[in-house]
Amino acid sequence: MNKLALSDEILLSVEKSARYIGNELNSVVKDKNSVDIRFAMCFPDVYDIGMSHLGIQILYDMFNRRDDIWCERVYSPWPDLHKIMKEKNIPLFGLESQEPIKDFDFIGMTLQYEMCYTNILQILDLGQIPLHSTDRADSDPIIIGGGPCTYNPEPIADFFDFFYIGEGETQYDAIFDLYKSMKKGNYSRKEFLHEVAKIEGIYVPSLYEVTYKEDNTISEFKPIYDDIPVSIKKQVEVDLDHAPYPMKPIVPFVQAVQDRVTLEIQRGCIRGCRFCQAGMIYRPNREKDVSVLKEYAHQMLRSTGYDEISLSSLSSSDYHQLEELLDFLINDCSKERVNISLPSLRIDAFSLDIMKKVQDVKKSSITFAPEAGSQRMRNVINKGLTVENIMNGAGQAFEGGWNKVKLYFMLGLPGETEDDMRAIPELANEIAALYYDTVPKEKRNGAPQITISTSFFVPKPFTPFQWAGMFPPEDYLDRAHLVNDHLKTQLNHKRIRYNWHEAYITVLEGLLARGDRRVAKTIEYVYNHGGIFDAWSEYFNFELWQEAFEATNVSLEFYAYRTRPEDEILPWDFIDIGVTKSFMLREKHNAEAEMVTPNCRMRCSACGAKNYGGGVCFENQN
Amino acid sequence: MAEVYVLKIRIKFQKSGVMKFVGHLDMMRYFQRAIRRAEIDICYSEGFSPHQKMSFASPLGVGITSDGEYLDIDVNSTKSTAESLAALNKTMVEGIRIVGYRQLPEHAKTSMAIIAAGRYTMTYKEGYDSPYTYEEWKQVLKEQFFDQDQFVILKKTKKSEREVDLKPLVFDFDVTEDDNIGFSLCVSTGSTDNLKPELVISSIYEKLGLTFDPLAFQIHRVDLYTKTGDGQFLSLGEMGEEIV
């Protein structure tokens, strides 16, 4: 057995030391002398979160299928260990080999949310790797970024050698083959980065330069060489049925947030909600065949011993073969005592019937995500859920024995009025009233319990709302208070609970999501002054960020609150996600006109994603 | 409904290497999954979230290795001891090895209910020195422990402090000398009168005015025992029968 990187003394003094020992079931150990490339796959947050991420499991498995690569994992040490590693100068290590990642060829980080940005610097710092790409020597690992945040990589561009824009299945073989041949030829890091920039989907920030206008907006963004692309094309795996998928996912000792088999049933979404980045960047919607999924479920349950399986997708109710898949899971898996954890399904007779089979009605709740309280606002955001849909679904659920309802909304959407805000508690009140109308006294299982949760809307790149302005935190809180006050005037307010999200984290997320290269020094300032784990409210320190804005001349006003003109060059414009900017503008105007756009199955709206040659764009055309 | 016939099985395993950092709750989850992977026909409770009928003899603290860990399970049917050991060991991680799989009598109590004693070794780790030589320790133990009528310590729990005489709870105690100096102890274990071996050593340190560093020792659980009718200790792993 390998010697651990950390001593017994350290491991016995930190929380959950099993996070740092590797050795989990299905983790891969190879002979380091038999491979050409050592890769550290990183999720820059704590193990329990990172181990829940499907994308890493897919790439880990895909890379390790190659005999010439050993892919390991690395996560953010929790603050207790972070402190010890800094004090004792212990280099961050890969879990499998327990060897320092600074000696690896690549470190690939998946960036799933903006609030992990200071943890990127933590990984590099503890890894004893220079924070800036420009300061790295030939002997340092190549640092790669991937995942949804890389659709605007600019705020973190200084810290990465390159970004992989899009789905990992398509280009890594080409990258590794190029790396191997250039390593053999003794080419420099700089030469490798120049070559890798020619691979479709790869963005090497150091090979592009940005100039700014006097008003601080971008004047020009262009490559410094003629032989690399001007725009970076998002990568899409068109044939998901034959793409690699891990049949033996790693099973952690420490309980992960998602501690179960995850079955990805489709990528992308047909709906086109205007606030939703995932709904745009993962276009076109592509489904996996149900027979493939049945086989995957069977194999993964056997290889892991998990007693629970969950379906992963953006909108499971839109999956064509959902009924067949759920029938299979319920009939075959229940025999094996496997629990089925249902994704949020559209509430209707079918989904209620399924839920009854797999959940305890008395304990479970039904969930609606109207996202906005008024029909007007739902038209603005293109959320095709009507009051009738909600009332029908809730009524059927009440008849079926449920009495708990969860409702999710956003506040601070573009053009939101006080009427739109008041519509939120009014809708909740109507649902509570419906319970009393629907369920006769003798059949009531207690009073209805309605929970409203509101988050504050964050405009994201590559959405029709990417130009929208945000509001200062106090303004968001006023909106939440307005909802709360209006709730108290409702007849059934005692049956309704209301939670709202953190407003300060929201504006920071907004700044990081739509920042440019000048925001990097702000992130670095915060890290250098002790800020990490911003995604954890107990560690998030808004005052430190404000201090950093001051010190680095970055303002919320410019990056978050300002409404951007349509002709402004946006920091992420050089990325081509297939969905065109003219479509985004069309959708922005439709939102302003409160016009609904039909989903991809009803009618093609010519967003541009059809160019990828697969998925929903080609359904019913064979 | 006809009564379902349930078989009781006791599984014995060893925990070594890096696995000593995996805590008790994580080990329980680990075994729930391992049982499924090995396709052991375990019994489940009823309801929407059925759980396996499984119980561990005695939780092992983080940092401690063991040659004598036990879990009892109920099964509907079973393969032979040899086949079950092979199926389980095929799906173990490094550092966990299954060494026993025996059927218990129909009305056997769980190991948790009958456990009476545990044998441990505590050895100075590399980089930590014993304050005494082997011979000196022999003398110290004689004077401080064996020659005394009582060995009373103040036992602190979250709720209270009380005086406890450790002597009747320590069944066997000696100094050992292999590569490093260490101690071998057999102590009372169970839901009442549970004594951790490190408490014995730390109390002796205290009586001698020495500072006790818990990190100085590697604690290893050798085995767990029940007490038979005639007052003898019997290894939990020797109860029941192998299945052929």
CATH architecture of the largest domain in chain B: 2-Layer Sandwich
Order of helix and strand elements from N to C terminus of chain B: EHEEHEHEHEEEEHEEE
How many distinct beta strands of chain B?
Answer: 12
Largest sheet of chain B, in brief, is: 10 strands, mixed
Which spans of chain B of ≥5 residues are poorly predicted at pLDDT below 50?
Answer: none
Pfam families (chain A): Radical_SAM, Radical_SAM_N2
InterPro entries (chain A): CHP03960_rSAM (IPR023862), Elp3/MiaA/NifB-like_rSAM (IPR006638), Radical_SAM_N2 (IPR045784), rSAM (IPR007197), rSAM_horseshoe (IPR023404), rSAM_sf (IPR058240)
Protein name (chain A): B12-binding domain-containing radical SAM protein
Domain Radical SAM core (chain A): 255-502
Outline the structure in words:
- The complex is a heterodimer of chains A (about 625) and B (about 240).
- A six-stranded mixed sheet of chain A has the order 2-1-3-4-5-6.
- Chain A is globular, with a radius of gyration of 25 Å.
- Chain A is an alpha/beta fold.
- Chain A has a domain at about 10-235.
- The model of chain A has no long low-confidence stretch (mean pLDDT about 95).
- Chain A has 20 helices and 19 strands.
- Chain B has about 240 residues and is of the alpha+beta class.
- Chain B has two domains: about 5-110, Alpha-Beta Plaits, CATH 3.30.70; about 115-225, Alpha-Beta Plaits (2-Layer Sandwich), CATH 3.30.70.
- In chain B, about 20% of the residues lie in helices and about 35% in strands.
- Chain B is built from five helices and twelve strands.
- Chain B has helices at about 25-35, 80-90, 110-115, 135-145, 195-205, and strands spanning about 5-15, 55, 65-75, 95-105, 115-125, 150-155, 160-165, 170-175, 180-190, 215-225, 235, 240.
- In chain B, strands 1, 2, 3, 4, 5, 8, 9, 10, 11 and 12 form a ten-stranded mixed sheet that branches. In chain B, strands 6-7 form a two-stranded antiparallel ribbon.
- At the A-B interface, α1 and α9 of A face α1 of B.
- Chain A: It comes from Agathobacter ruminis.
- Chain A: It holds the Pfam family Radical_SAM_N2.
- Chain A: One of its GO terms (molecular function) is iron-sulfur cluster binding.
- Chain A: This is B12-binding domain-containing radical SAM protein.
